[in-house]
Write a structure and sequence with these properties.
Blueprint lengths: L10 E2 L5 E8 L4 H28 L5 H12 L4 H41 L17 H27 L9 H6 L3 H4 L3 H11 L4 E2 L12 E3 L4 E5 L14 E7 L6 H9 L5 E7 L4 E9 L8 H4 L4 E6 L3 E7 L5 E9 L6 H22 L3 E5 L9 H4 L3 H8 L3 H13 L4 E5 L4 H13 L8 H14 L82
Parallel strand pairs: 9-12, 12-13
Antiparallel strand pairs: 1-13, 2-8, 3-7, 4-5, 5-6, 7-8, 9-10, 10-11
Helix pairs in contact: 1-2, 1-3, 2-3, 3-4, 10-13, 14-15
């Protein structure tokens, strides 16, 4: 159709490739905590020094400089610790480069929007696809100043990108800025300093396949004993052989404990990280490992048992179950959540809503869940939406990337696949074709429920609209039974409808009682009609 954006094809989202579990290090002695703090501070200083050297190398970095940095760190730690630090440094530098590229793209989008709106006459109205001119000359002047500022930022960011300069804060930029707002954060300088030092520690080790229990630096035995290989300057703190320190705490992973035990008993790689929760005063150990890449199921198999279409909103998931022909089944379901408050609260709300959604999908017997492939990166700029601050806050608060990642990982544990669809026009066409027809005195259909149907039908490969083309001759069945929902191999798909009874015309019914003859019609069937043809039934399966 003219003027419509071309839709991308639906696809099955690849499953998760990694696993992480966490447990608390309980009953640590004062000496245990002193050792952890000393090792973390020492290795954190080495990580900061290595990151500074990597950022100074910029685009001139190569295998030789990497090997040189690792040799320098090996003398003051160990070969394995040096390898873990340099690898973490490269990952952090690469992440900074990706963030820098996204920042440049965001600035370019804002500059383009500002230039477009400034080129329009003052007061010109916009359209659904493009914003109009500014409301007054005063606003036009302020936006012209902002355009100059964004252009200067864009020029500086592009220069940094080409030179390979990145800006990284070990410990986090947000925590660094909190130092200047201690009163608002309700922290003292000592409390902030404790958090800052804990975030800059380095207590992590990559796994090694073939080594004892999958890790030589931080080792966890099957019975839960935790020990750590001390760096060379701290070897005098060891309480075990070969420069190791064994803690009094014991680990017992309640979640995926059997899978973790199978890996370490087979000496397969397991990475560990130890960190301190300053607010609670607790130490935690996180174990992570990679899973072998599992090939996703074909899209046809995911569609075989129907689909659940999910429309993600600011405060709930609107879900509707559809059979494999695209027909809505049952009632709409809504799974609410609250995205206000702290990040931990928001994460718990999302987990709870997704758990209820997945449990319902398992009970319904479907093989896949259809969801929109949302990305609000280009929608969050203030230049595009201007004064609509509430709308910008709304879409900025929706954790689309985290939501998709968590849904994929949680659904994979229950054998469900996730089908991502193009989000274009799902709310518009769903409300147009499904909201009113499915509304009854006992069922309230919202626009989001209808969008869930549109998403599910697109995931199944059906068109969103529910009506077919008009019959070629008239409303009788001389041209065959019409349906767009049954599959090509369904028996009777193109056949005529069977008669309601087997009695001959005018004869008695099977029950022995004669039915009343049909009365004459009050309408003229042969007269041309000006009404547009609409399919009578909502569901046709053959």
């Amino acid at each position: 159709m003219d003027g419509l954006r071309e839709l991308t094809a639906s696809f099955v989202v690849p499953g998760p490739c990694g696993v992480a579990v966490r447990d608390r290090l309980k009953h640590l002695t004062a000496q245990d905590e002193r050792v952890l703090r000393a090792v973390g501070a020492h290795q954190g200083a080495l990580a900061s020094r290595d990151l500074k050297a990597r950022c100074a190398d910029g685009l001139e970095h190569g295998a030789q400089t990497w090997a040189s940095r690792k040799r320098e760190l090996t003398g003051v730690s160990s070969s394995r610790i040096a390898g873990a630090i340099t690898k973490a440094t490269h990952d952090q530098w690469a992440l900074a480069r990706r963030c820098q590229a996204a920042y440049i793209q965001n600035l370019a989008t804002g500059v383009k929007t500002l230039r477009h709106r400034l080129s329009l006459p003052v007061g010109e109205k916009g359209t659904k696809r493009a914003a109009g001119g500014y409301r007054s000359k005063s606003e036009w002047f302020r936006k012209s100043r902002r355009l100059a500022m964004l252009e200067a930022r864009h020029t500086a960011a592009v220069a940094d990108w080409r030179a390979g300069r990145v800006r990284v804060v070990r410990g986090g930029k947000r925590l660094l800025n909190t130092r200047h707002h201690l009163t608002q954060a309700r922290l003292t300088e000592e409390q902030w300093r404790e958090r800052w030092e804990a975030e800059r520690w380095f207590l992590a080790a990559d796994g090694e396949s073939g080594k004892r229990f999958g890790n030589e630096t931080i080792r966890v035995t099957p019975d839960g004993e935790v020990s750590i290989k001390l760096p060379a300057p701290l070897a005098h703190l060891a309480n075990a052989r070969h420069g190791r320190y064994t803690f009094t705490a014991r680990i017992a992973f309640a979640h995926r404990g059997a899978e973790w035990a199978d890996r370490i008993e087979a000496n397969r790689a397991v990475a560990y990280r130890i960190h301190l929760d300053v607010d609670r005063g607790r130490w935690y150990l996180t174990a992570s490992w990679q899973r072998p890449a599992v090939q996703t199921i074909p899209l046809e198999i995911a569609r075989a048992r129907g689909m659940i279409g999910v429309d993600a909103n600011a405060d709930h998931f609107a879900a509707y179950r559809l059979d494999r022909y695209g027909n809505p089944v049952g009632e709409p379901h809504r799974f609410g959540y609250d995205l206000s408050g702290t990040s931990d609260h928001r994460d718990a709300q999302i987990r709870h809503a997704l758990t209820r959604l997945i449990n319902w999908a398992v009970r319904a017997g479907v093989a896949a869940i259809g969801i929109e492939d949302l990305d609000f990166t280009t929608e969050k700029t203030r230049e595009k939406h201007g004064r609509r601050k509430r709308f910008r806050q709304l879409i900025s608060g929706m954790p689309t990337a985290k939501l998709k990642a968590r849904l994929v990982s949680m659904a994979a544990e229950h054998g469900l696949s996730i089908v991502a669809v193009d989000p274009a026009y799902t709310s518009l066409w769903g409300a147009q074709h499904w909201q009113k027809p499915l509304a009854t005195p006992h069922r309230t259909m919202s626009r989001h429920d209808a969008a869930g149907i549109a998403i599910g039908r697109r995931a199944l490969g059906h068109p969103v609209r529910r009506r077919t083309a008009p019959p070629p001759h008239d409303r009788s069945d001389r041209a065959g039974h019409r349906t767009a929902q049954a599959g090509p191999s369904t028996r009777g798909r193109e056949g005529t409808r069977p008669p309601t009874t087997d009695r001959p015309p005018g004869g008695p019914s099977p029950s022995g009682k004669r039915k009343r003859e049909p009365s004459a019609s009050n309408t003229v069937r042969d007269a041309p009609s000006t009404r547009e043809w609409v399919q009578d039934s909502l569901t046709h399966t053959g």
